[in-house]
Design brief:
- It contains 10 helices and 9 strands.
- It is an alpha/beta fold.
- The chain folds into 2 domains: 3-82 and 171-276, Metal-dependent hydrolases (TIM Barrel, Alpha-Beta Barrel); 91-155, DNA polymerase, domain 1.
- Strands 1, 2, 3, 4, 5, 6, 7, 8 and 9 form a 9-stranded mixed sheet that branches.
- α9 (223-235) links the parallel β7 and β8 (239-243).
- The longest helix has 27 residues, at 85-111.
């Protein structure tokens, strides 16, 4: 079976591997294709695509947009036009808003007497900083035992170093991907801790606004969860997708292409997306 990974992050957002390095790793792992789905930006795609051409790895342009529905919800987009003016305008706003949030988090840490500056963090981790980098720094400072511990005690919502950021409405996020010619997909549905009825309400709201797929295979999801999501996708006529949510060393338990060892995303998932990509109909107003 040709394996793929349609949920991959790089240093263009909060990953620790450069786009070209991710493609090299995909080649080493024998993956046929990967999608670069950095948070709120498509800026890592071109470097990855160029490396993919050299190494024979198919690289799909993608994005992961953070939204809210009861709590945080993420929408993935595939085969969107990376030169879309409307996409890049919104993406720039989202990246700048995250930067403002990060500076508030650094200020909270400094108020606690921690010797850290935002400039030092960017030198250490790169220009684009996310909460996983804060978590890794707290581990390195000896204030947390692990990335998960740092999130739970310091950088999750409600904890002392957490700072809120602005999010696009979920309806706007899906429509933005469609306006850029892309295929919008609901990411990792079990991460939102919704009951069945609530998850169905979310799916139906998303479909009403143009959702076309749902991530059914994801790191840590056992076969029972996968089959539940595949059945749900069939019921709602959604394309099934899958990916690891690879971030590199800030999430060392998640490995490219195989999540926690049982991911196994088949190439036919990508074939389904390709069948509709480039033929995405315009949304009705």
């Amino acid at each position: 079976m040709k394996r793929i990974d349609l949920h991959v992050h790089t240093t263009a957002s909060d990953g620790t591997c450069r786009p070209a390095e991710v493609v090299q790793l995909a080649k080493e792992k024998g993956l046929a294709a990967i999608a670069i789905t950095d948070h709120d930006t498509v800026s890592g795609y071109r470097e990855a695509a160029a490396e993919g051409e050299k190494l024979g790895v198919e690289v799909i342009p993608g994005i992961e947009i953070s939204t809210r529905y009861l709590g945080p919800v993420h929408i993935l987009g595939y085969y969107l036009d990376v030169d879309s003016p409307v996409l890049n305008e919104v993406s720039d706003w989202l990246v700048k808003d995250r930067d403002r949030r990060n500076r508030r988090m650094v200020a909270a840490m400094r108020a606690d007497g921690l010797d850290v500056t935002y400039e030092q963090m960017q030198e250490r981790f790169g220009a684009v900083i996310g909460r996983p980098h804060f978590a890794k720094l707290l581990v390195e400072m000896g204030l947390a035992e692990s990335i998960n511990d740092a999130f739970a005690r310091f950088v999750e919502r409600g904890q002392k170093y957490y700072a809120a950021r602005n999010f696009l409405p979920i309806e706007r996020s899906i429509r933005l991907i469609r306006e850029a010619g892309g295929v919008p997909v609901l990411a990792h549905p079990f991460q939102y801790k919704l009951e069945d009825a609530q998850l169905r309400e979310l799916i139906e709201l998303c479909i009403k606004n143009g959702l076309m797929g749902m991530e059914c295979r994801y790191s840590g999801y056992d076969e029972e969860k996968v089959h539940y999501l595949l059945d749900l996708a069939r019921e709602y006529s959604l394309l099934p997708t899958g990916g690891s949510d690879f971030h590199g060393s800030v999430k060392p338990h998640i490995q490219l292409g195989d999540g926690m060892g049982n991911l196994q995303v088949p190439y036919r998932f990508l074939t389904g997306i390709k069948a509709v990509a480039g033929m995405v109909p315009e949304l009705e107003e």
